[in-house]
Amino acid sequence: MVTAPLSRWNPGKVDRMATLAERLNAWFADAATPDAVGRLREPTTAEVAKAISEDPGHDVTISRSYLTSLRNGSQTNPTMNVLSAIVRYFQSRDMSLPVSVSALISEPAPPGAPEKKEERTETLADRQVRSIAMRAGKLSPDLREQLLSIMDVLDASRKAPEPAAEEGEA
Q: Among the listed ranges 55-64, 73-82, 101-110, which one has the minimum average pLDDT value?
């Protein structure tokens, strides 16, 4: 199945045009984990349907074909119990996108939600950023400190004004 790219759904802004299928596919993409050779692999529809059906925390059973129809948009009106079970599955994963029933059905975020969280979510939605973070997570604490120092130097050089060029021109 071809999934919708994360860029089609901007979790930082309420997008009433994004469909349930697009949001659900974005969650599948966001739940991707590295395989044995380091490539990101999304959970399969069958794996998710099985995990939801076997979860003792609720009484929802969902078939692979029904979950597929939610992902491809042919089913668009699942029950709240089904939505809650899907949310419960994705909340158990390491996700950067917001995972809640309201996020899935595009209800507006509560007023006063901090903008910084939205900015962080947008940044983490980038696959390269997540890839760097996942690789850094496998490093020893000492190597992570070194990596952070390198990133601080890069960030400082990017932000530093260029006064020498201005003084030389005057």
A: 101-110
Residue 108 located in a structural domain: yes
Model pLDDT, residue 161 = 63
Average pLDDT over residues 43-52: 97
CB 59 within 8 A of CB 2: no
Q: Is 112 left (phi over 0), alpha (psi -120 to 50) or beta?
A: left
Total structural domains within the chain: 1
Select from 79, 107, 97, 88 the least CA-distant residue to 31.
97
**C-beta pairs of 111-115 under 8 Å, 24+ apart in sequence:** none
155 vs 169: CA distance, rounded Å? 26
Its pTM stands at 0.55
- Token look-up 């006063």 returns 112
Supply the range of the domain harboring residue 78: 6-125
91-103 pLDDT tens trace? 999 888 889 888 8
Asked if residue 16 is part of any domain, the answer here is: yes
Residue with the two structure tokens 């130097």? 153
Which strand (E) or helix (H) includes residue 147? helix 141-159
Question: Could you tell me the CATH number of the domain that includes residue 112?
Answer: 1.10.260.40
